[in-house]
TrEMBL record:
GO terms for MF: metal ion binding
InterPro entries: SCO1/SenC, Thioredoxin-like_sf, Thioredoxin_domain
Protein family membership: Belongs to the SCO1/2 family.
Entry-linked Gene3D superfamilies: Glutaredoxin
The protein, known as: SCO family protein
Length: 162
């Protein structure tokens, strides 16, 4: 996996690059705020894992939640969404080309469904979480079916070894 690299907009509306997040263990997850299942379940699992790691490790970990639905996920919406999971969660969005650049970099696929009569649609997307050390080097992949004990152990090891 390539090192962490992107140019996006954070949930406060500021342009940010991967370098802005170096210095902490970083988890990278792609999704969207209107997601009915995968996103809230995955982010809630990560929040649960954070509550189980020791305080020192918890302070060293951040989750970057990158929207694959920039048409609906404004910085304000991203901030409201990530605040529900905890202070370690940071929403990122950007132009379609910015999103495509980072999803292509990590070979993440996503696809928009058909709009319903109200203009709503689903987005099919991957569910894995990429984990990077403090320097932005890829370390491992966390899948939604990994046992919680293993996720907690991986997070603590990443925070200690970063």
């Amino acid at each position: 996996m390539p090192p962490l690299d992107f140019h996006l907009t954070d949930e406060d509306g500021k342009d940010v690059d991967a370098e802005d997040f170096q210095g902490k263990t970083t988890l990278l997850f792609f999704g969207y705020t209107h997601c009915p299942d995968v996103c809230p379940i995955t982010l809630a699992r990560l929040a649960t894992a954070f509550r189980q790691v020791d305080d020192k490790a918890r302070e060293d970990i951040q989750v970057l939640f990158v929207s694959v639905d920039p048409a609906r996920d404004t910085p304000e919406i991203m901030k409201e969404y990530t605040n529900a999971f905890g202070p370690q969660f940071i929403g990122l969005t950007g132009s379609k080309s910015d999103i495509d650049a980072i999803t292509n970099r990590y070979r993440v696929s996503y696809e928009y469904g058909e709009k319903d009569e109200s203009g709503n649609y689903d987005v099919t997307h991957s569910s894995a979480t990429f984990a990077f050390n403090r320097e932005g080097d890829a370390q491992l992949l966390i899948r939604d079916d990994d046992p919680m004990k293993a996720v907690v152990s991986d997070l603590e090891a990443l925070a200690e070894g970063s």
